[in-house]
């Protein structure tokens, strides 16, 4: 690298860092505003409008998605498309909250009963706004010499795994070549970042299984089809068999989370239903597990003389980080927080992530952003006490902004690099 290029590189990194830090107070305000006013999945109308107003304040134009939930915003180094370059990189944030009653005493605690941002989506939104603010400022000050085109995607309904598809249907990925995202991580210290090649999160399939047979008096179970016994046998068989049909090196997790059957202690019920999730890191293992669950359902129906109907209702694919995109994201992270503070994630998460729908369409990468401070930020995700150290907001925004600029300089061919 020549001295001129190296100097320009250092100048860019310093400008991104400083600009991110200058917008930190505003990112905090945005995050706290959203934390006070959370909205559940598929109800993010006011949140969408609020973010749209924030974008207007930057002098940028927002495109509202279908049903007025979610929006996209483009920012480029030049208003001339020929000068702005060929590549367009998307940076995704999410808007929705969870049906959890907060236990926070902070002044910005949720004001909506039974709803709170317990997964950090308020921070994700503030960070992606920060990316827009940083890039827009760099454009105005002409700090960035290389062309860039970046699209912010503010998506609804991540928690129900319907928002990614909703935004894709609204045209969010039109003319997009690659995508970036992050998720806050309370197990990591603020100022640190977790990265990983390949499988990042598991795919998830939700299922529902209904049982119908002949009910009767609990004193005479021999005259019934023993629906309760059939359901218990089904659960035990699935828990025992599923780990045996998948590659032992590929994690597969099946869990029954809801069970409904009967209304009185002295009655053998005629009907029952259960529901749960199946999680896997590969599509092949997921399909093998589904097939085995159907075999078990057929066997239980024959054994107990009842009807068993298994249906898989919703599929979220695994997030697979693209090596080239993740390489640039990792490089940007190291320049923002320092090489020692960027750590490789040893194992993928078995949790599902709606970013997978975007990652299925364009080469993508996602990272974990440390949010645990000395006094706040260590409570687990999806709990009533969850909060975060807001110093992490500028770290996340700076990393994504720098990575997006870098990705815009890559050739359009994003095939995986030769391992040799």
Walk me through what this model shows.
By secondary structure, this protein is α/β, with parallel strands linked by helices. The chain has two domains: 3-199 and 320-407, Aminopeptidase, CATH 3.40.630.10; 203-316, Alpha-Beta Plaits, CATH 3.30.70.360. It contains ten helices and 16 strands. The protein has helices spanning 3-22, 24-36, 45-57, 121-141, 163-169, 227-245, 283-304, 323-337, 356-359, 392-407; strands spanning 62-64, 71-76, 89-94, 149-155, 178-189, 193-195, 198-201, 203-212, 216-217, 252-261, 267-268, 271-280, 307-316, 319-321, 342-344, 364-372. The strands form four sheets. An eight-stranded mixed beta sheet has the order 1-2-4-3-5-16-6-15, with helices on both faces. Helix 1 (3-22) packs antiparallel against helix 10 and helix 2 runs antiparallel to helix 4 (121-141). The chain starts with a helix and ends in a 13-residue tail after the last helix. The model has no long low-confidence stretch (mean pLDDT 94).
């Amino acid at each position: 690298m020549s001295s001129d290029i190296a100097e320009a590189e250092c100048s860019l990194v310093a400008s991104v860092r400083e600009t991110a830090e200058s917008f930190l107070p505003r990112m905090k305000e945005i995050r706290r505003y959203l934390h006070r006013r959370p909205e559940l999945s598929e109800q993010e109308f006011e949140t969408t409008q609020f973010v749209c107003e924030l974008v207007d304040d930057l002098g940028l134009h927002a495109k509202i998605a279908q049903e007025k939930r979610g929006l996209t915003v483009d920012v480029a180094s030049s208003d001339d498309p020929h000068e702005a370059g060929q590549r367009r990189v998307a940076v995704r944030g999410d808007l929705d909250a969870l049906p959890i009653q907060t236990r926070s005493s902070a002044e910005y605690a949720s004001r909506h009963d039974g709803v709170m941002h317990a997964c950090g989506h308020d921070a994700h939104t503030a960070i992606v706004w920060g990316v827009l603010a940083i890039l827009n400022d760099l454009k105005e000050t002409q700090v960035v010499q290389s062309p860039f085109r970046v699209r912010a995607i503010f998506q609804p309904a991540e928690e129900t795994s319907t928002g990614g598809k909703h935004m894709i249907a609204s045209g969010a990925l039109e003319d997009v070549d690659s995508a970036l995202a992050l998720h806050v991580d309370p197990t990591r210290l603020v100022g640190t970042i977790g990265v990983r090649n390949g499988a990042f999160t598991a795919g998830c399939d939700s299922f529902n299984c209904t049982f119908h047979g002949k009910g009767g008096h609990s004193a005479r179970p021999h005259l019934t089809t023993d629906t309760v016994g059939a359901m218990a046998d089904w659960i035990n068989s699935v828990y025992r068999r599923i780990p045996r049909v998948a590659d032992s090196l590929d994690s597969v997790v099946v869990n029954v989370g809801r069970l409904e059957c009967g209304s009185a202690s002295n009655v053998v019920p005629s009907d029952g239903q259960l529901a749960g999730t199946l999680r896997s890191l590969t599509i092949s293992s997921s399909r093998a597990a589904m097939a085995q669950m159907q075999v078990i359902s057929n066997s239980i129906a024959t054994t107990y003389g009842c009807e068993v109907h298994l249906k898989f209702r919703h599929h979220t694919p695994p997030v697979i980080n693209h090596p080239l995109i993740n390489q640039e994201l990792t490089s940007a992270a190291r320049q923002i927080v320092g090489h020692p503070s960027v750590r490789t994630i040893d194992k993928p998460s078995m949790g599902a992530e709606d970013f997978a729908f975007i990652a299925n369409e364009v080469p993508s990468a996602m990272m974990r952003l440390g949010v645990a401070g000395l006094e706040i930020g260590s409570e687990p995700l999806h709990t009533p006490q969850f909060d975060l150290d807001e110093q992490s907001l500028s770290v996340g925004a700076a990393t994504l902004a720098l990575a997006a600029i870098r990705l815009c300089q890559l050739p359009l061919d994003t095939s995986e690099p030769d391992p040799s």
